[in-house]
Design goal:
Low-confidence stretches: 1-71
Helix content: 55-70%
Oligomer: single chain
Distance between the termini: 27 Å
Largest sheet: 2 strands, antiparallel
Strand order of the largest sheet: 1-2
Strand content: under 5%
Structural class: mainly alpha
Number of strands: 2
Shape: globular
Number of helices: 11
Order of helices and strands: HHHHHHHHEEHHH
Amino acid sequence: MSDTPEKPRRLVTARRTLTIGTLAAGLATAAHATIVTPAEADLPDSYWLAAGEGEGEGEGEGEGEGEAAEQDSSARMDDDAFLVALGQLEGRLFAATALAEEGQVDAAAALLDGPAGDVRAALDARGIDGVADALAALDTAIAEGADTVADNYDTARDLFESARRETTARGQFRSLIALTRAAAETYAGAVDGDQITDLAAYQAAWGMIELAKVEAGEMAEANHDRISQAGQGLVDALAFGDPAFTDLQAAGLHPDASLLHGAAGRMDLALSKVY
């Protein structure tokens, strides 16, 4: 993002910040805010751009600005890779916040140990300020068992959503499918035979899938027929993976990573019918 005042700005997507206090009780039923998109736009793959912007925004900018510009471009990541990496990070934070809300501080803290450096650098490169402070505040709140954990998560989520608004709807849909496949791989790594042997990996996979449900659900309520249809298709497809989880402790679970791979395949099919 440029700080140049004259640069055309993207129209803002309105989303409600989600509160995490009732996560464990049933995140899939959380209310989603309507996504506002301008009626005059007819390109269904875009969270619409103001005049003069496009998906290749930034290409050619900064030519001749030297090594600093090249480093910034490298840190930024392409949109697809960025959205998946962001989803993996936020999925862990999502699960950590839910665990903290249940009083499982040690388990929550373990999920915060995952690597986040590349995502933070990419957020910085995209002009999203305050991420390091927000994540540090969440880490501290969880470690101290503070009652501000949900608020700290919401602050971080607001920053993440600011970055997502700079990408296309189609890219976001693709990233949710890729995130579901990443969750399937993480989940598979938590399983040995018919047992969960790595509870933290299981919980991280849970967080990624629940985040995918939230994001797809928000898109399903978009004020745009095609975006809404695609979002609902992904919501319905994700439901196929529900039996892969019980609660955050995997109580009474017979683990099956193929359910999540199946959900991703159904998501692909659902998206192909719209885009």
